[in-house]
Amino acid sequence: MSLKDSTPLALSVAIHVGLAVVLLWGDFSTPPKPTPSAVQIEPIQAVLVEKSTVDAQINKLKKQDADKARKLKELEDSIAAAKTKKLNEEKRIKTLERERKKKAQEKKAADIAAKKAKANAADKLRKQKILEKQQADEAAAKAKAERIKEEKAAKKADDLRKKKAAEQKRKEQEARERAAQQELIEQQMAEEMASRQQARRQQMMTEIGRFTALITQTIKRNLITDRSTMEGKSCKLTISLAPSGFVTNVVTGQGDRRVCEAAKTAVYKAGTLPVSKDPEIFREMRTISLTVAPDKFN
């Protein structure tokens, strides 16, 4: 290889080596380096290099270029990821900020609503107390009116009760007086009636006694006696009579048989005995009992 042909190659190798050094050891965070065109390259002393050495150097540079490209790609990916992360973080911050503002607005609205609700509750409570006081006053007034009404009604009822009690007492007094008067009248009437009844009874007994004596005399007139057999003896008769005095039945009771037969025969022989025309006296004489003693008729 001639010197003329090896000069460009050596120059290329030197340039690539410089770029590799810049890429491998350079600081990407620092401001950009001047472009290669701006770099002052010292004149390179052309030397004669073997082809295998040059090829090895070229392969090395190619590998370095690939590594550089890979690292550049990784760097770009890292930068992109950082940008994405930064964008996401900015979005997150903006979201948080919006949420914060929203929460602040909501809290402000809630505070306003709470204050309004509190004010409304206080106003409602005030109105409720006013209403309750009005209702209490109305209830008290109504209760007072009812109490006065009840007191008037009670007084009226008490007056009416007293009036009724007085009227009842007056009526009871009048009833007692009437009862006493009626009792006195009844007592007087009873005494008078008893007196009349007693007089009537005495009259009836007198009449009954008179008619009994007449009947006895009639039997005596029709009685056949035997002193030897009948003296000191007697017989009890029960005689049933019709209103006309007709003898309807004769029943002999205790006594001497002969006296009883003679007395019974004498009654039937008479047929009709003397009786009172007074129905009341006749009722007492409808059935008459008497004792026949022959020795007493003489």
SSE layout:
Elements: H1 3-25, H2 51-222, H3 227-230, E1 235-241, E2 247-255, H4 257-270, H5 279-285, E3 287-292, H6 294-297
Antiparallel strand pairs: 1-2, 1-3
Helix pairs in contact: 1-2, 2-4, 2-5
Descriptive keywords:
single chain; 298 residues; mainly alpha; Fusion Protein Consisting Of Minor Coat Protein, Glycine Rich Linker, Tola, And A His Tag, Chain: A, Domain 2
Which percent bin holds the helix content? Answer: over 70%
Number of helices: 6
Alpha carbon gap, first and last residue: 231 Å
Radius of gyration: 84 Å
- The stretches of 5 or more residues where confidence is low (pLDDT under 50) are 27-31
Element order: H for helix, E for strand: HHHEEHHEH
What share of residues are in beta strands?
5-15%
Largest sheet: 3 strands, antiparallel
Structural class: mainly alpha
Q: Which sequence of strands runs across the widest sheet?
A: 2-1-3
Shape: rod-shaped
Number of strands: 3
- Average pLDDT across residues? 82
